């Protein structure tokens, strides 16, 4: 299973945006209790965008007031687009929301968060600079990380309050590329270089169907270390080690990442 990272959500926003932006919602069906009575039919989708791992579908109600459908994929979530009447790829009970626009329907499945917000900025006010945002600010990301010198870099990189977009796969890949152990104190790391690597990887992958950090787009060769427990390091041949950091799997080469 591929855990959604910032680039996943960015690509998803693009895909959904192609279909929904400018469309008028003919019917909306929110299947979570809190929003079950919400009806955005007649609203026009003005934008679909990502901020870190958060997805926003901005809608202008018929009255002209803006509202935004905020979702977070967490571990299992996704959005799919279908022509009305075709079979869904996931079971109906997994659908949290269905947005109808003419003969198209966008279905949000297994979403970790789903809410309808008058002011969407409140949902992401806690986030650090977005690695894929128009307003990406590397200096702010570096200073946010630097403010936590004693936290292991592998933990700090996942803290979306410091910078937004890095998930479990990228933290392993970034640490390998920078030749540092994820347990290294953040204060002992070349932070501008780490932040730059995060941005480079996410940007390169924002529109790719398969995540790739090695530059080799061949099945099974796309990643340096993630998911490669006990397999030989692509650089030095040492067996890759899997361990838990902050209760999530991390993969390292003990030789390349002392
Ligand atoms: Zn190695």
From TrEMBL:
EC code(s) of this entry: 4.2.99.18
A GO biological process held by the record: base-excision repair
InterPro entries: FPG_cat, FPG_N, H2TH_FPG, Nei2_N, Ribosomal_uS13-like_H2TH, Znf_DNA_glyclase/AP_lyase, Znf_FPG/IleRS
Ranges for domain Formamidopyrimidine-DNA glycosylase catalytic: 4-108
Enzyme class: lyase
PROSITE patterns in the cross-refs: FPG_CAT, ZF_FPG_2
Flavoprotein as UniProt keyword: no
Pfam name, any one: Fapy_DNA_glyco
Cofactor(s) needed by this chain: Zn(2+)
GO molecular function terms attached to this record: class I DNA-(apurinic or apyrimidinic site) endonuclease activity; damaged DNA binding; oxidized pyrimidine nucleobase lesion DNA N-glycosylase activity; zinc ion binding
All residue ranges annotated as the FPG-type domain in the record: 224-258
Keyword tags: DNA damage, DNA repair, DNA-binding, Endonuclease, Glycosidase, Hydrolase, Lyase, Metal-binding, Multifunctional enzyme, Nuclease, Zinc, Zinc-finger
Superkingdom to which the source organism belongs: Bacteria
CDD domains (alphabetical): AcNei2_N
Family listed: Belongs to the FPG family.
Protein name, per record: DNA-(apurinic or apyrimidinic site) lyase
